[in-house]
Amino acid sequence: MVNHSLTDEPTWPAFLSWVVDDPWQRQLVLRAAKRFRLQDQMAIWCVTDGILSWPRSPQVSRGGLHQPLEPRSLGTWTWDRRIDASLWQPSTGPRSEAMVRVAAEWPGCNRGFCAGHHRRGGPETD
Q1: What is the mean pLDDT of the chain?
Q2: pTM for this structure?
Q3: Rounded CA separation 54/50 (Å)
Q4: Rounded (10°) angle between helices 111-120 and 93-105
């Protein structure tokens, strides 16, 4: 973060956000946060059980970050191969779109809710 700081003041976020898949990953994040004395600045959302924990004592953000844009190329991966690997490709596209719509309509829903909604959804989500 020092290399991308916009000011001479050391840049630091008010809190760090994590999204984890299960309670075990939450414990791993908490363990790492404790090692670096960041446990009071962590926001963690567990997808499986839906538990959201906020930092106990968020700090004030300092400075700002700048990340320069670097020119990129497509490399050797053809556009057709990129499309085939995409979540939105024809065989999974409608299902992926349906899950995005569920998440947009019911913010904070968990994976089980999305799966249940998909099973009830009918032909448009098959």
Answers
A1: 79
A2: 0.47
A3: 13
A4: 120
- Sheet-wide strand order for 42-46: 16-20, 42-46, 52-53
Dihedral Cα 28, 19, 49, 88, nearest 10 deg: -130
Please answer whether residues 11 and 64 qualify as being in contact, where contact means their C-beta atoms are separated by less than 8 angstroms: yes
Q: What is the 3-state secondary structure (H, E, C) of 79-116?
A: HHHHHHHCCCCCCCHHHHHHHHHHHHHCCCCCHHHHHH
Could you tell me which of 82, 110, 85, 114 has the C-alpha nearest to residue 100? 114
Measured from the Cβ of residue 96, the count of other Cβ atoms closer than 10 Å reads 14
Give per-residue pLDDT as tens, 64-84: 777 777 777 777 888 788 877
